[in-house]
Design brief:
The protein is mainly α. It contains 6 helices and 2 strands, in the order H-H-H-H-E-E-H-H. The radius of gyration is 20 Å and the shape is elongated.
Length: about 160
């Protein structure tokens, strides 16, 4: 299906040095992919310096989300779409149990330990600091507008779950 002619903009090759007046011709996949790679690397490098990983932070947050204690299967199901591979989240749960940050009760539900809650709080503080660096010079309004545009583009191609 062709877009209406009055809204069509030619697609130019990705150009990191594109001037502001040329940005409308830039491929969103290039820029969104670059943003994802750079931000993820920045976060994961900072977390590695305190011996933690981004997926560990995801799991700690999901276990602590305020609802009933989740099972391992629920955590894996919820977080697998974010992971790098099909077994990553299960492995992270195992690591966190081994590390003493999670415990499994008699009903096979996951709970944060005191050490796990302390780690989650440390990671939350770090992520908050890193977010400030990433968002420097970007107003909340600009950020919201950016996410709304990306969300609309995802909806336009009918893949709201990213799979």
């Amino acid at each position: 299906m062709k877009p209406p002619r009055d809204t069509f903009t030619d697609q130019a090759p990705a150009d990191p040095a594109a001037s502001d007046d040329m940005l409308a011709t830039q491929p969103v996949g290039y820029w969104s992919g670059l943003a994802h790679a750079v931000v993820t690397r920045h976060l994961r490098d900072a977390m590695a310096r305190i011996d933690a990983t981004q997926p560990q932070y995801w799991v700690l947050n999901r276990v602590n989300d305020g609802s009933l204690a989740p099972s391992r299967e629920e955590i894996v199901s919820q977080l697998q779409p974010l992971a790098d591979g099909p077994h990553d989240i299960g492995r992270v749960v195992d690591q966190l149990v081994h590390r003493g940050w999670l415990r499994i009760d008699a009903a096979h539900l996951l709970h944060l330990t005191d050490a796990g809650e302390a780690a989650r709080e440390r990671l939350r503080e770090l992520v908050t600091e890193l977010r400030a660096v990433v968002h420097e010079g970007v107003s909340d309004e600009e950020y919201v507008a950016t996410l709304k545009v990306l969300r609309r583009m995802v909806a336009n191609i009918g893949d709201a779950k990213g799979s």
